[in-house]
Write a structure and sequence with these properties.
single chain, 342 residues, alpha/beta, three-stranded parallel β-sheet, 11 strands, 13% strand, globular
């Protein structure tokens, strides 16, 4: 019941549950605007969406939600969020086994959970933190990488959009996703523009700008600053289509936001740029993933701050263009080698 990236990083725990308990029926309760990211996942029976705004306006909403959950007679509920709402759903789910994470609220933990795991979010990688629930259930963990499904309809929709933009089927391209939840988590747009031009100049492959409706301004700014026109798909893809686009790409370059987790979950090489957030807790970890972090003593500064008092030239601006370009060249080496053999 958090953001898209948090939901993606739950999938290794789901895999561990399904591996050891293949007959288990696993449902996931998430914020409704993140539910689509789990569409078609083979290990999940049902994705339940929770509408936070509706719960605030309609007092009976959460009561009806809990009623529906109780009717399903779950054997086990794992609360990975620890919020008051998540704790309420867990407590009244009717499940005999309820696992949660300690937040030093002793009375609530005693009333809500049958088993409590020490709270380590931030000091462990988030995937490893989630997998503590597998450990207390004595479940072996074979894979600590997230996974997502790509829906055929979404893949087809993306192929149609690419074809309309002049990209022939199976032609390589690079995706740049320059947005982030806070502006100060974003690499400067003029550097993304320079990077896009460099990719087109030296690798002669198209660059696609992706983003949600809130990213259209920054994508437009990058588009206008580039010498070679990119393909700007910001605001034109839903969540499942974005997943399909990233899976088809040669690599993804982006800030600490959901697309870097989508990329690693579908096996696409990613260059992930981190600033305010600790990369040790959130970074993609496949061998093909590259993480570049701005190292400053004020990290982490969290998500609550709406601005950075130190200005635009601090933090993410400390990540050099050359370091990102070297990472991109490395990610595209297999593609370059394949093109040379043709």
């Amino acid at each position: 019941m958090r953001y898209i990236g948090d939901v993606i990083l739950v999938t290794p725990l789901i895999a561990a549950l399904k591996e050891r308990l293949p007959g288990a029926q696993i449902d996931v309760l998430v914020n409704h605007n993140t539910a689509a990211i789990l569409s078609g996942h083979s290990m999940i029976r049902r994705v339940l969406g929770f509408d936070v705004e509706k719960s605030r306006k309609q007092p009976m909403y959460i009561f009806r939600l809990i009623q529906g959950i109780r009717r399903r007679r779950y054997d086990l509920v794992i609360d990975l969020t620890g919020s008051d709402r998540a704790a309420a759903v867990t407590r009244f789910s009717g499940a005999p086994l309820r696992i949660g994470y300690s937040r030093l609220r002793k009375l609530r933990e005693k009333l809500v959970y049958t088993q409590v795991i020490p709270y380590h979010l931030g000091s462990l990688h988030t995937v490893d933190y989630h997998l503590k629930a597998a450990e207390v259930l004595h479940l072996p963990v074979k894979d600590r990488h997230p996974s997502l499904a790509v829906m055929p309809a979404s893949r087809q929709a993306v192929e149609q959009k690419l074809s309309a933009a002049g990209i022939v089927p199976d032609a390589p391209f690079v995706v740049i996703h320059p947005g982030a939840r806070r502006w100060y988590k974003s690499w400067p747009p003029e550097r993304y523009a320079r990077l896009g031009d460099r990719i087109i100049d030296e690798r002669t492959i198209p660059v696609i700008l992706s983003g949600g409706p809130g990213d259209q301004d920054i994508c437009r700014k990058i588009e206008l600053e580039m010498i070679h026109p990119p393909i700007n798909l910001s605001g034109r893809l839903n969540l499942t289509e974005l997943t399909a686009l990233i899976q088809k790409s040669a690599c993804l370059i982006g800030n600490d936001s959901a697309p870097i987790h989508i990329a690693t979950a579908v096996g696409t090489p990613v260059i992930a740029l981190f600033g305010p957030t600790l990369s040790s807790a959130w970074a993609p970890r496949r061998p093909s993933d590259t993480v570049i972090a701005a190292e400053y003593p004020c990290r982490p500064c969290g998500h609550a701050r709406s601005d950075c008092p130190l200005g635009e030239e601090y933090c993410m601006a400390g990540i050099s263009f050359d370091s990102v370009w070297e990472a991109v060249k490395k990610a595209l080496e297999p593609l370059s080698a394949a093109m040379e053999r043709m």
